[in-house]
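Cross-posted from the bioinformatics board.
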Amino acid sequence: EAEVAQSPRYKITEKSQAVAFWCDPISGHATLYWYRQILGQGPELLVQFQDESVVDDSQLPKDRFSAERLKGVDSTLKIQPAELGDSAMYLCASSLVGEGGETQYFGPGTRLLVL
Amino acid sequence: KQEVTQIPAALSVPEGENLVLNCSFTDSAIYNLQWFRQDPGKGLTSLLLIQSSQREQTSGRLNASLDKSSGRSTLYIAASQPGDSATYLCAAGGGSEKLVFGKGTKLTVNP
């Protein structure tokens, strides 16, 4: 069964350092999502891609966060510099059709701890 | 702005019991409503997706209903098992709007 891959699974960093997360969606899924989930909360959308184009990045803190999906396949989310409040689970998801019309399939997540 | 609320925040039941999880949303103009399961430290697994034109969806022991007019959805789990222990999240939205998630209900099924 095809799955969304994410790496690393865990990341510990010090504040002010740079971190990067990678996501490989299910093959053929044109839509890719990055979510942030704080412990005890539901996921919140950071950025949505349709192929290589950004559809929604309204909740992405653009002063420190960046995301790219250069060839419309895998994607990288970067934080520079990391802050203590960035400690959270970062989830990647993909779907066949955007706009919530289809089921989103989630990866295992990357748990980030900023010290 | 869409807001999604899930009650209760936690639920503990004995094995074999039927149970209902509740989800409410403030904006009824949704494209679909989805229910997910999340095990500790893991990603989300999709359980059921209800399109706005539908009233319910079923998968095995799970049945989800949707009442757009009242802004409510329920997830019914029949004959609960210890393996059902997890956090259950609902998410509303779709169309040109993003999915908005509730905080989830943490379910514990005791043997």
